[in-house]
Amino acid sequence: MDVNLSSLHWVYLAFIVFIVACLIKRRDTTMICVAGILALGLIATASVGDSVSGLFKSFVYAAKELLGTIFIISIIVSMSRVLIRTGINEKMVAPLTRFMRTPALAFWGIGIIMMVSSWFFWPSPGVALIGAVLLPAAARVGLPALGAAVAMNLFGHGIALSGDYIIQGAPKLTADAAGLPVSQVMEASVPLVIVMGAVTTIVAYWMMVRDRKKGTWRDGLVAQETPASPSAETLVLPAAVKRWAAIIIPLLFVADVVAMFVLDLQGDDATAIVGGTAILILLALTLIAHRNKGMEEMTSYLVDGFQFGFKVFGPVIPIAAFFYLGDSAFVPLFGNHLPQGSQGIVNDLGVALANGVPVNNVVGAITLTVTGAITGLDGSGFSGISLAGSVAHMFAIAIGHGAATLTALGQIAAIWVGGGTLIPWALIPAAAICGVSPFELARRNLKPVLIGLAATTVVAMFLI
After folding, report:
1. Which residues form the signal peptide (predicted)?
2. Which of 106, 163, 315, 352 lies in disulfide reach of 100, CB 3.0 to 4.6 Å?
3. How far apart are CA 410 and CA 430, in angstroms?
4. Which residue in 75, 82, 85, 163 sits closest to 121, CA to CA?
5. What angle, 0 to 180 degrees and rounded to 10, lies between the N-to-C axes of helices 7-24 and 361-375?
């Protein structure tokens, strides 16, 4: 199928190149995205007024698309705050510390617990939820603080966040940009997440054991900092209340997972049941902990959570607004000014790529890994995965298949690089609670993550 590329297509492609260049230079991309939206609007409508108003509308469009994701993360964080203040988090994790009898069990135990908690609470709150309880237990059996930080980091910000199977924030962003159902991207990501997680964590553990035996291990300790959680006073609850809450809360989330399978809930519906459960837990715990001040404190926790959510997703909205114009948002915002027969800017570019460049599984997989890694260089992990989804869509059209696998591969590369395993300023939560240098943690993660990305890319070549 032939397609006529207009100036809109070339301008859109040029701005993608600009965005990638900014990411490589570790510069912020918001202004480039704003300029790109204005340029596309001006070319399409030939009206300054329409392009300026379209800029605001594109932000609103992106915010509406992302609102569910922002809300679920904000609510989960709100709930985690009250769990930390009441000490219920300690009760939830404490029974698991008895299994940490050796450094090896401590490394893998901390990692698996962090992974599971990050699926439900997201990694940053998860670090605060479990770190203070598990770290002393790990230290007692001889696991160094940097080793604990590596485990928390790779399992939480790496494995759990790159798949994001419960909250589904990451696959929502990439699936939207690629024009695919969220469930399709999540299904395609499973083997890639398993390969990436297994290779990276095994290599990291082996390197830790090797370096400690050789005497080349560096602890990277710094002055202990306060973990990323509110500095509010601790709330006193009766021991029985904490004990029952520590049992009931995990069971409620397990019930949510069972409901997802039994009722076949996916995407927004799956996110909604987790979010609703978190709100009810937040409400109940706030009333129990604060009693007659519960109504006011409920609002305070929600405000705290939404501040966190919008701080994380604030940089994402203008970037997502630009990439939505490549597919579903262009006609609603600027009218049908695309060439006749166009299937959207990204689709048209993909067809042109297929007609003009020899593209195959190997080229597609390598390109998506590199694209995802580049988008993660800003230290967010989320801000650029719309680009990964958009590029995956173009290459899938060019190859003729493999859209979901390519999208999942770009998502995994972006999250592992930028979500908190390689970029030092994204490592601060895990590094702070373990009392180690984020730069030393990034250095320790570098080889395992790069080896994992290489192995995952090779596997993706066969799955596309």
Report:
1. none
2. 106
3. 24
4. 75
5. 60
Distance between CA atoms of 327 and 282, rounded to whole angstroms? Answer: 38
Its pTM stands at 0.72
How many residues are there in the chain?
Answer: 464
**CA-wise closest residue to 157 among 456, 455, 458, 438:** 438
Q: At what angle do helices 48-86 and 316-324 cross, to 10 degrees?
A: 140
Q: Which two tokens stand for residue 144?
A: 């160094």
DSSP secondary structure letter of residue 378? G
Q: Are 105 and 138 in contact (CB under 8 A)?
A: no
Number of Cβ within 10 Å of residue 247's Cβ equals 13
How confident is the model over 52-95, as pLDDT tens digits?
Answer: 999 999 999 988 887 887 888 788 888 888 888 888 888 887 77
What CA dihedral angle connects 385, 391, 392 and 398, to 10 degrees?
Answer: 180
| Contact (CB, 8 A) for 386 and 176 | yes
Question: Which tens digit of pLDDT belongs to each residue from 418-439?
Answer: 887 887 666 777 787 787 888 8
pLDDT in tens, 115-129: 988 888 778 777 766
Contacts of 318 by beta carbon, 8 Å cutoff, 6+ apart: 30, 33, 34, 37, 59, 62
Tokens at residue 318, please? Answer: 């203008």
Map tokens 């601790």 to a residue: 234
Contact at 8 Å (CB) between 193 and 412?
Answer: yes
Number of C-beta neighbours around residue 149 at 10 A? 29
In the block, which residue shows the tokens 């966190």? Answer: 308
Beta-carbon contacts of residue 123 (< 8 Å; ≥ 6 apart): 114, 156, 157, 160, 161, 419, 420, 429
Q: Could you give the CA distance from residue 242 to residue 71 in angstroms, rounded to a whole number?
A: 27
Position 349 pLDDT exceeds 70: yes
